[in-house]
């Protein structure tokens, strides 16, 4: 190429940039309104101002911070930023990828559990300053006849290993030398969350961190799946989502009969999947009614469930779950949105292993007169040509409606093409990917590759209670902070897509989109005003 | 999609995988010969066997090793593998991206420097166990009249800060408490290389590690650029490259008149760029002649220089370098291969800053009757829409022949298209990218995205003396170890492309390709035989 003038070069350069970004959702959007352009610009300015101020300062224990840095280390800075405050008010659309058991913050769970005398806790050895770092709490709701008085504290050297102590009592009697009740809370919290040292030092590989990750579920399951707690948990999940600007949720519930059962209020009877879905339905309906009474019905359109089971079962075992899912779909057609197989892809079975029952599923549905799309996890991996990576081929061949994670999708040009043709959206979980060591910071995340190729993306939180990233604001923040290309408009398009590519029915979608648009316009006003105020103030103080 | 049988599904799956990989160099290659297929398979088997053996064992100080792990930590395991031994024998084609001053291992440089009485060293303070970790050596060739006897050791508490000591003397008198002469060597080596703690702990961000990286050049320049040492250095670079199976080199030489001059044997006179190129030419010709005498002329086709200067100069300043480059091209048309601007892209000036002189360059060349392509570094960055990322637009608009690094290229669909259309090869430097913190391990490296999209890639070593990765074997190893898709055939195609996309003239290329193919066939035999022997042995010992 040759250019006759700088102006000619500049024109070619601008045209090339436009062509390169033409597939992005924010570019496809076309002309921005005055307000959109203003809000987008103001937010970019706020981001730049904070990159040069709060992110360039030293913070205790954070040697060299930067926007988009490791979430667990940077979180304390993030929550101080104006950018985070602004994004907190953004209407986020739907949450399309979250594992129900890991959606509510630990302190709520603990406080709730404390109110149920059935809940007991034990440890495999007496806790002291040496053992507390490695011994995990074990919870169980105990039926009346097995409950204990818990005379001996978990921290008492005379504590008999594995003796049950009522939860409230265990907390109350926790040795002051280990921090007393607050020390107890810290012990529990450490077992249910991933801390920076684990993610970035001791467990700094995908398979290592997954060991810790899985252990958080082992600990919390008996609490979360105790029916009375579960109802409160689901309710809190929905209410906190709404508070974060999320107007629809589509959580995955892990159904694994024997290993992770739901237990009834009597702390003895197992309740079946039908009961779980029914109670979920009731909670959702209650929330809807309450919101309606408050004139806030547009803030929450509803919830559906992606029926999931774990990639460790046998193909024969899977058939039972497929049948179970169909039965639930028949009874709760408005609730069952899809079917998925979950668990650590690098170590459990690939989709290919289940190909017989999965191919049969369509036939089974036909017979039953229902339709249940697959919404598969696939390629939540760093592998290149490993079974986990290859799951993408099977997910797509089996007609997956969306792809959970699809972290390795960027490596597959043909599959990207197919995703675009068929409208397969990718459920991208930025913070989850980073903490589970697929990427070291947001800057290494392949999200921009997908966005620039025009692949539809919905940002999701995955397991926010384990990551300390409840809601979607943190994930939106990380994405916005780590890119100079992405701005508010792109975030808005992703939020809209999280509605369009959800499992809502057409009427629900229409209502959700209209409600979102209304809130979006208000949000843009707010973002522009609030951002400008902040920028004016920053200039004065500089 | 619906399938009538598992067989039908399998057929569709295979077709989809083929379609997805159709653009890869190894797939475009077509039918493999029997030997190629065998060698590829055997090497895959060796890789798998070692992933399950040496990479799955505990190693001292390496808590959880894995193939493709952080190079500086994993190096001691890599060199024990059969895979590494096999790749060491592979004919690698050309080395298209390396900074001359960082191509020869530190111990050679130090031993060579020791033979020159002009070389002196000093420190800003006496060295003891406290200061040795932070004080850098400073080297300088001193003219006869300024040389010292170096009576007082650098480690003597009476050492006067910044007093020059002859290099050999400084080593000899180094305090035994600090390790004596070997302790001296360790001190020097630490200043010229990046260690795992720096890369993965204390300097674990791109900008931080670049500080250390740049400091290694500050330390080694007065050694490397002392003319008599420089000749030996260039010779050793070429000889060690040949020993590693590299048959052509195209290093970048940084020309920056004032700040990093070349000094003549008298340790006083600055020598001009013409002299530098002339001496390079002589060394190359000497090596060629020697090889010819030994009947080994096919092992080394030649060398060219990419004239580089640093992105910190002014646009006006750049004009001088462009003229200088043209003058050199006129005198050494067979040696000057291209022009580049180097240095940390995230902090120095973008290409856009230099657009006026860069646009003028074509006209200047025409007038002079020469042709010098740009071969630009671009997007060696994690930025998304930052100036460093945007350098890609300018590099491509300015007609760059290849792209150095192009780490962020995967984000740019239009630019990928253009690279393919115009045959712009990407100089990918896997180990450099990892140590300089663009990627945490090879598994997060975007290389597979480029390969699967059919972008031409040449693997390069960048600054191997700083990384301890001399030659290209280590880079090939990391790429092969971290992927299940990539095998020997893909490596061979990249090696061939490093010849095809080099700056050799057509006759040289033809000769290089023919020579490469001959050696490749021998290598395949060796790899198959050696690999099979290893696999047989492993089975016996298991």
Automatic annotation (TrEMBL), chains A, B:
<dbReference type="Pfam" id="PF00962">
    <property type="entry name" value="A_deaminase"/>
</dbReference>
<dbReference type="GO" id="GO:0006154">
    <property type="term" value="P:adenosine catabolic process"/>
</dbReference>
<dbReference type="InterPro" id="IPR006330">
    <property type="entry name" value="Ado/ade_deaminase"/>
</dbReference>
<dbReference type="InterPro" id="IPR001365">
    <property type="entry name" value="A_deaminase_dom"/>
</dbReference>
<keyword id="KW-0732">Signal</keyword>
<dbReference type="InterPro" id="IPR006331">
    <property type="entry name" value="ADGF"/>
</dbReference>
<dbReference type="GO" id="GO:0004000">
    <property type="term" value="F:adenosine deaminase activity"/>
</dbReference>
<dbReference type="GO" id="GO:0046872">
    <property type="term" value="F:metal ion binding"/>
</dbReference>
<dbReference type="GO" id="GO:0046103">
    <property type="term" value="P:inosine biosynthetic process"/>
</dbReference>
<feature type="domain" description="Adenosine deaminase">
    <location>
        <begin position="200"/>
        <end position="512"/>
    </location>
</feature>
<keyword id="KW-0479">Metal-binding</keyword>
<comment type="similarity">
    <text>Belongs to the metallo-dependent hydrolases superfamily. Adenosine and AMP deaminases family. ADGF subfamily.</text>
</comment>
<dbReference type="GO" id="GO:0005615">
    <property type="term" value="C:extracellular space"/>
</dbReference>
<protein>
    <recommendedName>
        <fullName>adenosine deaminase</fullName>
        <ecNumber>3.5.4.4</ecNumber>
    </recommendedName>
</protein>
<keyword id="KW-0964">Secreted</keyword>
<keyword id="KW-0378">Hydrolase</keyword>
<dbReference type="InterPro" id="IPR032466">
    <property type="entry name" value="Metal_Hydrolase"/>
</dbReference>
């Amino acid at each position: 190429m040759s250019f006759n003038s700088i102006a000619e070069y500049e024109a070619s350069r601008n045209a090339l940039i436009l062509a390169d970004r033409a597939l992005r959702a924010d570019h496809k959007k076309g002309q921005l309104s005055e307000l959109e352009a203003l809000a987008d610009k103001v937010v970019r300015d706020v981001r730049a101002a904070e990159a040069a101020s709060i992110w360039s300062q030293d913070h205790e224990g954070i040697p060299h911070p930067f926007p988009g840095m490791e979430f667990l280390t940077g979180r304390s800075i993030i929550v101080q930023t104006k950018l985070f405050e602004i994004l907190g008010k953004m209407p986020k659309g739907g949450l399309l990828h979250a594992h129900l058991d890991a959606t509510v913050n630990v302190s709520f769970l603990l406080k709730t559990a404390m109110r149920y005398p059935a809940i007991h806790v034990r440890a495999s050895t007496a806790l002291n300053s040496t053992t507390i770092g490695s011994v995990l709490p074990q919870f169980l709701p105990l039926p009346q006849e097995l409950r204990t008085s818990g005379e001996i504290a978990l921290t008492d050297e005379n504590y008999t290993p594995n003796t049950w102590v009522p939860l409230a009592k265990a907390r109350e009697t926790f040795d002051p030398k280990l921090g007393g009740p607050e020390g107890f809370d810290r012990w529990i919290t450490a077992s249910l969350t991933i801390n920076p040292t684990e993610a970035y030092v001791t467990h700094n590989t995908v398979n290592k961190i997954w060991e810790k990750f899985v252990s958080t579920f082992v600990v919390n399951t008996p609490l979360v799946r105790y029916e009375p707690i579960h109802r409160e948990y689901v309710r809190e999940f929905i209410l906190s989502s709404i508070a974060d600007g999320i107007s629809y949720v589509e959580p995955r519930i892990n159904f694994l009969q024997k290993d992770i059962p739901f237990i009834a209020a009597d702390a003895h009877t197992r309740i079946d999947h039908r009961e779980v879905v029914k109670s979920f339905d009731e909670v959702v309906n209650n929330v809807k009614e309450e919101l309606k009474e408050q004139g806030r019905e547009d803030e929450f359109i509803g919830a559906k469930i992606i029926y999931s089971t774990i990639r460790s079962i046998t193909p024969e075992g899977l058939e039972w779950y497929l049948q179970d899912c169909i039965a639930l779909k028949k009874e709760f057609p408005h609730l069952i949105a899809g079917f998925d197989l979950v668990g650590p892809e690098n170590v459990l079975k690939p989709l290919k292993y289940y190909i017989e029952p999965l191919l049969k599923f369509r036939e089974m549905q036909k017979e039953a007169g229902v339709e249940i799309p697959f919404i598969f996890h696939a390629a939540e991996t760093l592998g290149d040509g490993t079974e986990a990576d290859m799951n993408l081929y099977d997910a797509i061949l089996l007609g997956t409606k969306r792809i959970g994670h699809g972290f390795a999708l960027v490596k597959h040009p043909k599959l990207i093409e197919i995703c675009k043709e068929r409208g397969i959206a990718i459920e991208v979980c930025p913070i989850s990917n980073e903490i589970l060591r697929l990427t070291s910071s947001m800057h290494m995340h392949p999200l921009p590759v997908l966005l620039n190729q025009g692949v539809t993306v919905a940002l999701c939180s995955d397991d926010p209670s384990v990551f300390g990233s409840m809601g979607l604001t943190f994930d939106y923040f990380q994405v916005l902070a780590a890119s100079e290309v992405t701005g508010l408009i792109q975030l808005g398009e992703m939020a809209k897509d999280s509605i369009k590519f959800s499992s809502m029915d057409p009427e629900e979608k229409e209502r959700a989109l209209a409600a979102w648009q209304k809130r979006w316009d208000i949000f843009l006003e707010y973002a522009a005003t609030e951002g400008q105020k902040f920028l004016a103030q920053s200039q004065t103080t500089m």
